Amino acid sequence: MPTLTDVAKLANVSKMTVSRVINHPEQVTEELRELVFKAMKELDYRPNNVAKALAQNRTLIVKVMVLEELDTTEPYYMNLLIGIASGLDKKHYALQLVTQTSVNQTECDGFIIMGMREGDYSFIKELKKPVVLFGENTYGFTYVDSDNFGGTAKATTYAIDRGYQKIVFVGIDVEAPFEQSRENGYIETMQQAGMETEILRFENYSTQTKDYFHTHINRYPQNTCFICSSDRLALGVERGIFQGGYSVPHDYGVIGFDGVLLDQVAEPKLTTVKQEVRQMGEHCADLIINKIQHPDQVIKSIELDTQLIIRESTK
């Protein structure tokens, strides 16, 4: 079998350069990378990542924990997990999906955790391996998230610009930083426009918002826009408005938040704040591997910009 030395000889570079191309390609020039990769391909050389991991006392496994109940029909987490798996695979790491009760049954090199609530952080602090959270937090953990504040600020600005008489925020009834940021984006934008705010909160189920708006839509004047903290909530708002005898967008406007399938199956299709969910998953993978490989470095959190997608649920 070809060795690292064989690759170095064929590429006419040092073994150290070949090692750097394999392990830290960002540290070498594009010309050197192409030279070494060409030699590796000619020789059919494949780095022995398992042997390397054993030498470094690593497992090449990252455990992923979802600390809230998963709905198998919800595409959001599936897209996120695909992004994480793709990012880990590029660095020859495997994803292991675990629950909080099974977290210590096998070894790993680090954790990606999502769905945190206030009571979970004491448990997270006790973990002995590097941790990256999916979701902003106030405890100093490295995280990946969308710009939640900016997302609802965009949606609110759009609703104001479209001339809606009243704008109501429909939030998720949970104490979590992401939700507070989304509410704050709405509140500050409304205050800057001199408009009165109103916030409703529900569990993140479309049936709850559907039932509420079916019964109470007459409380809100026509030409009201409902800005929702998830597409799931927005889907229920749309259905409740229709069941109450009104239409979207002729009578009321609805804006969601997520942009992962539900916005497109709604009728009419939802105007929504789109998150780059799969890309966020890849960033989670990149950050945890950086923390594993560089334990003494400060790894900064990432907030990705959102995009307002205009569809048929707003005028």
TrEMBL record:
Pfam families according to UniProt: LacI (PF00356), Peripla_BP_3 (PF13377)
Domain of life: Bacteria
Signal sequence interval, chain numbering: none
InterPro entries attached to this UniProt entry: HTH_LacI, LacI/GalR-like_sensor, Lambda_DNA-bd_dom_sf, Peripla_BP_I
PROSITE patterns linked to this entry: HTH_LACI_1 (PS00356), HTH_LACI_2 (PS50932)
Gene3D superfamilies: 3.40.50.2300, lambda repressor-like DNA-binding domains
GO molecular function: DNA-binding transcription factor activity; transcription cis-regulatory region binding
Domain (HTH lacI-type) ranges: 2-56
Keywords: DNA-binding, Transcription, Transcription regulation
Name of the protein this chain belongs to: HTH-type transcriptional repressor CytR
Organism: Jeotgalibaca dankookensis
